[in-house]
Amino acid sequence: MIKLRLKRYGKKFEASYRIVAMQSTTRRDGRPLEELGFYNPRSDEVRLDVPAIIKRLKDGAQPTDTVRRILEKQNVFEQLKA
Is residue 31 classed exposed, middle or buried when 0-12, 13-18 and 19+ CB atoms within 10 A define those classes? Predict the structure, then answer.
């Protein structure tokens, strides 16, 4: 199963995350199938590749709870329904 989840990178205590599509059995910082966006929790900066995320969701990818909240804040699910 393909999941949309966060991949951690950055310095210790200054983590940032990439939103990626990965197999559910792959380790957290393993090689992703595709990088779909960026999330910085310290400044709440979010950059998303919305067309690629919508394509993955239509293909059956399941977002984790945290990624789902980020996508809801950015109104991606409304674009998916349209």
Answer: exposed
d(CA 77, CA 21): 17
pTM: 0.90
Number of domains in the chain: 1
pLDDT 10s per residue in the chain (82 long)? Answer: 999 999 999 999 999 999 999 999 999 888 999 999 999 999 999 999 999 999 999 999 999 999 999 999 999 999 888 7
Domain residues for 39? 2-81
Assign 3-class secondary structure to 29-55.
CCCCCEEEEEEECCCCEEEECHHHHHH
Query: Distance between CA 59 and CA 79 in Å, rounded?
Result: 15
Token pair listed for 30 = 């393993």
